[in-house]
């Protein structure tokens, strides 16, 4: 059995939605490893709430979210850095574990790799965002082959890295209830932030004259206010950041999930959450969702940034069989399949002699 130390994203407590999709990934992978009998210890910010999972809570000031920075913004560390404190803890306990798994999209843990006596698996949760991260990710991929893992090939391609493991994602399907007959609603899920281009979904809902339920962490209040001012008559309703159980209760009743990523979405966990409920996904043909949605079968892939394309897809939803959507989630995105991929990745790294660089 493996002894695994999971070190969280440092942008906010787990379970609050600040960490976006990587929170859900960390939770599902940890739960599945424990179910298989492995030892898992999670190192995370104070206030992290993951039911039944063993968490060591670490104090300190959160890291600035990487997507708010420019490509050449220098890496910044606050005083009393939570990120540094988490990795100091990992350094102290490292010899109790076979492998450390890093879930942070940050320079420090990647730079620290050769300073540790225990191997580190780095799960990269976003596409390329900065020169400094590209440089250190590429260096670790070269010095420690196989230890950089991505969600998808299109995400890896943004770093010009080809040979790295792509682990995809997965969810606990038992939490998502299939709904055969939807209400006349559309859904949009995600952190309310510019890179998610919520405004396109709002405009499409207005043109299609179909109410839009919006759920997710309110990351950028000004951005949200701007949308409300620009679309005062749009049929939208913001429901906040809900637990998986409450979120899927809303999502499952919708005609479709709209995904409008302005950036290369690394995966798009919300897409498989929708499919698990039988909800077709309409997404820009960009990044992770383009590898998840089977165009015309489990939803529609639309020309990126084309609101008209979203509206046309909404009009064609009757062509999609909702049970086919649920089946695709069961076939591709179960938490058991996820566990197989991650366990294999972990074992491959543990069995690779550590490169003495
Ligand atoms: N920014 N600096 C930093 N570190 C992270 O781990 C991080 C982030 N921004 C967003 C984020 N993680 C997650 O929301 C995405 O990986 C899903």
Automatic annotation (TrEMBL):
Keyword Transferase: yes
CDD domains in the record: GT4_AviGT4-like
InterPro entries listed in its UniProt record: Glyco_trans_1, Glycosyltransferase_grp1
Record domain Glycosyl transferase family: where: 180-320
Molecular function terms from GO: glycosyltransferase activity
Domain of life, per lineage: Bacteria
Keywords: Transferase
Name used for this protein in its record: UDP-glucose:tetrahydrobiopterin glucosyltransferase
Phylogenetic classification of the source organism: Bacteria, Bacillati, Cyanobacteriota, Cyanophyceae, Chroococcidiopsidales
């Amino acid at each position: 059995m493996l002894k695994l130390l999971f070190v969280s994203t440092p942008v906010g407590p787990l379970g609050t939605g600040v960490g976006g999709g990587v929170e859900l990934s960390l939770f599902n992978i940890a739960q599945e490893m424990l179910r298989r009998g492995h030892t898992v210890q999670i190192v995370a910010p104070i206030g992290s709430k993951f039911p039944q999972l063993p968490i060591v809570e670490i104090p300190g000031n959160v890291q600035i979210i990487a997507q708010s920075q420019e490509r050449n913004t220098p890496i910044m560390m606050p005083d009393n850095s939570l990120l540094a404190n988490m990795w100091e803890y990992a350094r102290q306990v490292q010899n109790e574990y076979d492998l450390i798994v890093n879930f942070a999209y940050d320079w420090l843990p990647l730079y620290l790799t050769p300073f540790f006596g225990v191997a580190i698996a780095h799960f990269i949760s976003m596409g390329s965002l900065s020169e400094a991260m590209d440089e250190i990710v590429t260096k670790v991929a070269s010095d420690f082959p196989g230890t950089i893992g991505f969600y998808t090939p299109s995400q890896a391609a943004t770093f010009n890295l080809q040979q790295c493991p792509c682990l995809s994602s997965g969810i606990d399907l038992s939490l998502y209830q299939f709904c055969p007959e939807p209400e006349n609603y559309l859904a949009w899920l995600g952190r309310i932030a510019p890179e998610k281009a919520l405004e396109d979904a709002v405009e499409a809902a207005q043109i299609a004259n179909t109410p839009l339920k919006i759920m997710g962490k309110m990351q950028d209040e000004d951005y949200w206010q701007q949308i409300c001012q620009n679309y005062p008559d749009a049929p939208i309703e913001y429901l906040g950041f809900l637990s998986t159980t409450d979120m899927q209760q809303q999502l499952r009743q919708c005609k479709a999930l709209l995904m409008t990523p302005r950036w290369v979405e690394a995966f798009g966990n919300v897409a498989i959450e929708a499919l698990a409920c039988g909800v077709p996904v309409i997404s820009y043909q960009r990044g992770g969702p383009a590898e998840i949605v089977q165009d015309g079968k489990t939803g529609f892939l639309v020309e990126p940034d084309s609101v008209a394309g979203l509206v046309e897809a909404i009009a064609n939803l009757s062509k999609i069989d909702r049970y086919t959507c649920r089946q695709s989630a069961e076939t591709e995105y179960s938490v058991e399949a996820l566990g197989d991929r991650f366990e294999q990745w972990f074992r491959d790294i543990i069995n690779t002699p550590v490169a003495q660089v």
